[in-house]
Amino acid sequence: MFTTPLKAVKGQSEQERQRKQAYDDLDLLLKDVINIRVDGIIITDVGFIKFVHDKYPNIKIVLSTCQSVFNSYAVKFFLEMGVKRITFPRHVSIKEMIEIALKFPEMEFECFLVEGKCIYDDGSCRPLHSAGVFCMDQWEYSYHKDNHADFKYNEVQKLMQNEQIFNYRNRLFGGRQNKVNNWTYVGCGICAIPQILKCPNIVTLKVAGRGYSLEEKYSLSRYVSRAIQKALTGADTSDMKMMGKEELGMPELCDLHRRCYLPLDN
Amino acid sequence: MISVAIKIGNIGDLRKAELQLNDREVFDDYDQVVLNSHREFFNCFTPNDIDRIYFGPEFCQNMIPNIQDINLAVEYAKRRGFKVTLVTPTVTDIGIAKISELFERADEIYYVDEVVFNDWGVFRMLSEKYPDIHYICGRLLDKTQRDPRINKGSYTDFFTGEGLLYLQSPSLTARSYQEVLTNNKISRVEIDTYPQGIALNKESLQNINLSLWYPFGYVTTGRSCIINMMDKNESQKFSLEPGCQRKCRDYTRLLYKREGSYSSELSSGAYDVNIFGKGNTVFYICKDLDGILKGNKDIINRLVFQPYLSV
Question: Does B24 map to a domain?
Answer without folding.
Answer: yes
